[in-house]
Amino acid sequence: MKRRKGSSDSLLTKAGGELDDRFKLAGPARVLFNKVFPDHWSFLLGEIALFSFILLLLSGTFLALFFDPSMVEVTYDGAYVPLQGVDMSRAYESTLHLSFEVRGGLFMRQMHHWAALLFMASILVHMLRIFFTGAFRAPRETNWMIGIVMFWLGFFEGFFGYSLPDDGLSGTGLRIMEGMTASIPFIGPWASAALFGGQFPGTTVIPMLYIIHVFIFPLLLLALITVHVALVFIQKHTQWPGPGRTEHNVVGFRMFPNYVMKQVGFMLFIFGVLAAMAGLFQINPIWLFGPYEVSVVSSASQPDFYVMYLDGLIRLFPSWELRIPPYFTLPPVFWPGIVGMGLSVMLPLLYPALERRFTKDRGHHNLLQRPRDNPGRTSLGMMVVVFWIIGVISGGNDVFAEKFHISLNAMTWAGRIGLVVLPIITYYVTYRICLGLQQHDREVLAHGLETGILMRDPNGRFYEVHQPLAEPDEHGHTELEYNGWVVPKKMNRVGALPPQDKGFFKSIEEPSENGASSHEEIESGKH
Amino acid sequence: MSAHNDSARDEVEPVDLSDPKLTRFEVYKEGLRRDDIEIIHYEPRFPKPGTKTEKRMERIVSGLFLLSGLFATLFVVAYIWWPWEYEGAATWQDPQTWYTPVLGFTLGFSLLFFAVGVLTWAKKLLPVEELVQDRHDGGSSTDDRKIAESTVDTIVEDMGLRRRPFLVKTALLAAAPLGLAAVAPLGALIKDPGDMYTVTGWNADKYNDGNPVGIMMKDGALVRPDMVSAGGQITVYPAIDHGATNQFPTAPVLLIHLREEDAEILRGNLYPMYQDVDALWGNFVAYSKICTHVGCPASLYEQQSQRLLCPCHQSQFNVVDNAAPVFGPATRHLPILPITVNDEGFFEAKSDFLVPPGPAFWNRPSLPEEDEK
Fold first, then answer.
1. Nearest residue to B56 via CA among B71, B43, B45, B69
2. Is the same domain home to B263 and B363?
3. Contact (Cβ atoms closer than 8 angstroms) between residue A132 and residue A381
4. What's the structural domain count of chain B?
5. CA B192 to CA A189: how far, in whole Å?
6. What pLDDT score does A499 carry?
7. Confidence of residue B1 (pLDDT cuts 50, 70, 90)
8. Rounded Cα–Cα distance for residues A495 and A526 (Å)
9. A266 and chain B: CB distance < 8 Å anywhere?
10. What is the pLDDT, as a whole number, of residue A505?
11. Rg of the Cα trace of chain A?
12. B196 vs A193: CB contact, 8 Å cut-off?
């Protein structure tokens, strides 16, 4: 208590000393504090998934206190009037209880669901960033594969999670999963009987999915996330090319305090957005769906968005059934459901190895590529994106048909044809766009920027004045090499006419009060 | 991998840490040097401390923190005291309708204000910096590799893995069944699917002591022909214990009372196997409600086109043609339940379905009758 105000520094030193005596931290802690991270907004997409996962663990723990994964048949007599007297499973009843009779229960349920959707969405976007910039190349193939495995763990974690309430919609999802399982050659019916403890739906599947959902998969995800992040740490993050950036260094800012503060802020931001969404936007109103009954379904039965492409493929696949009379049948759902899912797991897993094989590029790459600089890969990626989007749209084709007054069958046929034709067109178009962008970069490097100033020579010919980016030779050409990073395309990128005002509410037209000072900055070379 | 150590940092001399004249920052920079980090650019955001702009920025950040605390307090207050208990049909004027939105609004904004505060602090108050660190990519040094190799070799040699191949082989031989033993308990999940796909609740021998199974509605009321008007349809279940529950997932049937002209067309189209057992009763036909694609209820009945539609994957079945699939991914017709009316005037099933209802499965027998027109 006698300690004076000025001695707080020495208190910190003392605490540090005590810790170091015990754990020998001074060296490793310094390395951690000083570690340099490259800076770019696109490097933070994976973080969104990490932060959503943390929120999923927190909100999920709350839900587990009240949810009862039991298939025991009960008669509802809770607060929600329209379902009073209805027979349902204990799982569904406890979810209703959680939503209506637990303080803040609905808020937590909705937060959990929104966080799960954001988790999957951010993984997808993060994956696209990694793919299109070539960040998966050596030495990071392992981490790419871990990421793909985590996507699929998340996929089933989410599917199992929303199956737990045993409501009318999720039961339909399980029904489809049963149909897919039973279609597998040789083991299908046995696999289905093992999964459902006999005939679908049985009474064992919800408790089984529950233990997978709350223990096994979260544990696996936690372990893999740890390895994933540790590898990013050990291998050091990739960076964009640019001045002073090479394959052998990292240019950026320090872990402490800069990076950590921004991460904490970003995490709280994601939490805040999810909390606001949980309170303001309804998600999965299970009380409207009623308990699961095998004979009841409504139209507009859509799974969560990350499952939709698979459902869409199942809708689009033609009625091709392979029969081997008299004993065997290979149902149509096998192809999109089992083979389609298998390919969606295997192709991304193997992609880094395939690209290595076909490009014979075995070097290490720590500098990222702009998508335009690898048109082949970019076009392949866009093919997959378009294929996936058609799948997702087809997964909701009944809703589209209804809302836009299109024939349902026309939607299906459009999806079938689109699935085959559009990816091919996409490949071609993307390739051309990449080449065009490349060409324009080279053009600017050789001839300079378009200034928008039109001149007329004595012969009456009009031409546009170009601003060369370096001292031109006698033909007006500059010999600048493209270094894989943004080439300035506008005059104000090289210091001319900067925006006079950066204010959000003021028009740019308005003369700036501090115009003079910003002009000084240009001259001192800050812009 | 030493070729790239060409940066200026090799020229930076290590400092003598015992020198008492060293400033804090010089000691700090020695740490950076040891981690192969070089400062390219480092300057305080506000070169003159205590300027008006800096003070203003500080006030903004602390204001954000205070707002965050205020909203967090509001959240806790609302969580405890806002009326929340659901009482039937609440309108928007009842406070409990707003419980969840209020929670989201207060907690969300509390977190957002704190987040923006921290981010502003980081972006507007921390020094402007750019540093470059050596990557040291591409494996360990040759020395390290050599030592590691010899270490592993010594371990292998000590164990005699090369000299004692028999030991290795027997160990592997034992490990295989041990691995199997580790997963074998999962076998407890295995169950014989038995007749689960082929026998339904309509099976008289299994579920009704050999007596024909009656047809009931969900509430247990037995069904008479006069309960369905022409052109109408109802979902019915086997009149046995729990017949209308999920215990009999392939039993639900759509009982349709066709109009005379439609029934005539259907009778003309009827597959021989259904003709043989006289599967219809009058103008009544009973189709399995479980889609033959992946098992959703094919329950949307479109009277105009006489189609049944499954809302899950849009398979469509022609009601006047044995419910054969006409569009979508389904490949087989919805099986007809042969029905009749007993002496008391109630519907009953003549037998179970003639072919397995519901989605196909790998060892589903493909009967030639199904393909017959």
1. B45
2. yes
3. yes
4. 3
5. 9
6. 57
7. very low
8. 9
9. yes
10. 66
11. 29
12. yes
A437 residue type, one letter = L
DSSP bridge partners of A449: A467
Closest CA to A294 of A158, A164, A165, A176: A176
Question: Are B134 and B163 within one domain?
Answer: no
Task: Please give, rounded to a whole number of angstroms, the shortest distance from the CA of A442 to a CA of chain B.
Answer: 29
C-alpha–C-alpha distance, residues A321 and B366, integer Å: 11
Region at A367 (left for phi over 0; alpha for psi -120 to 50; beta for the rest): beta
Contact B193 A189 (CB under 8 A): yes
Q: Give the sign of the dihedral formed by CA A169, CA A170, CA A171, CA A173.
A: positive
By C-alpha distance, which of B320, B315, B319 is closest to B360? B315
Residue B228 near residue B284 (C-beta atoms within 8 A): yes
Same domain, residue pair B41 and B163 = no
Residue A326 pLDDT > 80, yes or no?
no
Note whether A325 contacts B368, CB cutoff 8 Å: yes
Q: Predicted confidence band at A62 (pLDDT cuts at 50, 70, 90)?
A: very high
Domain hosting A62: range is: 40-239+254-304
Among A178, A285, A218, which residue's Cα sits nearest to residue A64?
A218
Query: Which residues of A365-461 form beta strands (DSSP E)?
Result: 449-456
- B112 and B258 in a single domain? The answer is no
Quick one: tokens of A248? 């052998």
A510: pLDDT strictly greater than 70: no
Interaxial angle between packed helices A217-235 and A45-66, expressed in degrees from 0 to 180 and rounded to the nearest 10: 160
pLDDT (0 to 100) of residue A527: 38
Same domain, B173 and B128: no
* Bridge partners of residue A36, in order along the sequence: A254
Q: Are residues B114 and B14 both part of a single domain?
A: yes
Look at residue B304 in the predicted model and tell me its pLDDT.
84
d(CA A406, CA A388): 21
What is the model's pLDDT at position B93? 87
A366 reaches B (C-beta below 8 A): yes
pLDDT class for A328, splitting at 50, 70, 90?
confident
- The pLDDT of residue A281: 97
Select from B40, B135, B207 the residue whose CB has the most chain A CBs within 10 Å, as the one to mutate to test that interface.
B135
| Structural domain of B331 | 204-371
A367: DSSP letter: B
pLDDT at A511 over 70: no
What number is the ipTM of this complex? 0.93
